[in-house]
Specification:
The complex is a heterodimer of chains A (204) and B (163). With 204 residues, chain A is α+β, with helices and mostly antiparallel strands. Chain A is built from six helices and seven strands; from the N terminus they run αβββαααββαββα. The chains are: A alpha+beta (204), B alpha+beta (163). The interface between A and B is medium-sized, with 26 and 29 residues.
Chain lengths: 204, 163
């Protein structure tokens, strides 16, 4: 896994992604958004289930699978109330209008995940830019929506890393939208190949 | 995270762990594409639950609960320790192995491979599978009742049910 100097260097690089994503979210919801939590973590597999709060609570998740220069999973997550509040904001509806996850509500948060995720990934691409143009290309899949137990979602996203190690690496960013109680979280979970590439960047 | 014998409380298992206990209380785990395996002896009321992540340990022995091929023998070994020389008559129940977000064809998922590996090993050990709820695209909360051997499955947005 990554050593302390590598983690410290990566933390600085991932901050750029968080800041770009925060700006994109602000523009998208037309309200100020700020990063309230931003950390790079390496935790025991057995402890990772608590990374999104109570592991047994259902949460909403928009997942993008990543190919290209950064490979793994990018998850935007929120609890039910905050997700529906976000759908209201995006659709220009009074707060409390959306009560359940219909097509429009899902579409609103999926588009948010797309904008937030792509801003984050674009910043990372600039941070990690190499002389190999092909390796710098990022190919995120369209986001997909699920509402499930937090631990179930995390175990799915961590599966690739778990195959190689009992320690898992992830970046965790929490966004808060001002003038609202709304928060959402963004987790980048690189796969084994991406982690090896990140180590290589710092070793050379 | 092993649960103590005769535990009367609910013990929650994280990824890759095994718990063994008897008589009362419950063992629980949350599953996505991982597989939950419950083994139970109805007469001795000894139960074990594993949260299996991958089908094959490839010879690694430091974390037996994580892999199908090492989890099953390890569960049986620890149940025998609790059985006080009584022979075990085990039954198995399986849950999990979801293809969450339908990221690939269902047949090629790690979840499906976990199910196949565990079923093959249980067959070799002559342990019948008496209940199963595997596949699909959603996570599951799996709870083994140590007093009865009943396994309850909870899925977000659906009624819970018992295997």
């Amino acid at each position: 896994m990554l050593n302390e100097p590598q983690l410290a260097a990566l933390t600085l690089l991932f901050h750029r992604g968080s800041n770009e994503a925060s700006l994109a979210l602000s523009r998208w919801v037309d309200r100020r958004a700020r990063v309230s939590v931003d950390r790079v973590e390496q935790v025991a597999l057995a402890d990772a289930a608590g990374e999104l709060g109570d592991p047994e609570q259902p949460i909403c998740c928009c997942l993008m699978s990543l190919a290209g220069g950064v490979t793994g999973q990018l998850l935007m997550t929120f609890d039910n109330a905050h997700g529906l509040a976000l759908a209201d904001i995006i659709q220009g509806l009074p707060a409390g209008t959306s009560k359940e996850w219909g097509e429009m509500e899902r579409s609103a948060v999926l588009e948010t995940a797309n904008i937030l995720g792509c801003a984050y990934l674009n910043a990372l691409a600039r941070s990690f830019a190499t002389t190999d143009a092909a390796a710098d290309v990022l190919l995120p899949s369209p986001p997909r929506f699920a509402r499930d137990f937090a631990a179930s979602l995390l175990s799915f996203a961590l599966l690739d890393q778990a195959a190689a190690s009992d320690l898992v690496f992830l970046t965790h960013t929490e966004f808060h939208i001002e003038d609202s109680p709304l928060t959402c979280e963004l987790l980048l979970i690189p796969d084994r190949h991406c982690l090896a590439a990140l180590r290589h960047v710092f070793d050379h | 995270m092993p649960a103590p014998a005769n535990s009367s409380r609910m013990a929650s298992l994280p990824m890759g762990e095994i718990a063994v206990a008897r008589s009362s209380g419950a063992l629980r785990t949350l599953l996505g594409s991982c597989l939950g395996l419950a083994l139970y002896d109805r007469k001795l009321k000894i139960g074990a639950l594993a949260h299996i992540v991958l089908p094959d340990s490839l010879g690694r022995d430091e974390h037996p609960g994580k892999f199908a091929d090492s989890a099953v023998p390890h569960m049986i070994h620890r149940m025998r320790e609790l059985a006080d020389n009584h022979p075990l008559r085990l039954q198995a129940k399986l849950a999990g192995g979801a293809n969450m977000f339908a990221t690939t064809s269902a047949a090629n998922t790690v979840g499906a491979q976990n199910v196949s590996a565990v079923e093959r090993i249980l067959d070799e050990c002559r342990i019948p599978v008496v209940g199963r709820h595997c596949g699909g695209e959603q996570g599951r909360k799996m709870t083994l009742d140590l007093a009865t051997g009943a396994v309850t499955i909870e899925i977000v947005g659906a009624e819970s049910f018992t295997l």
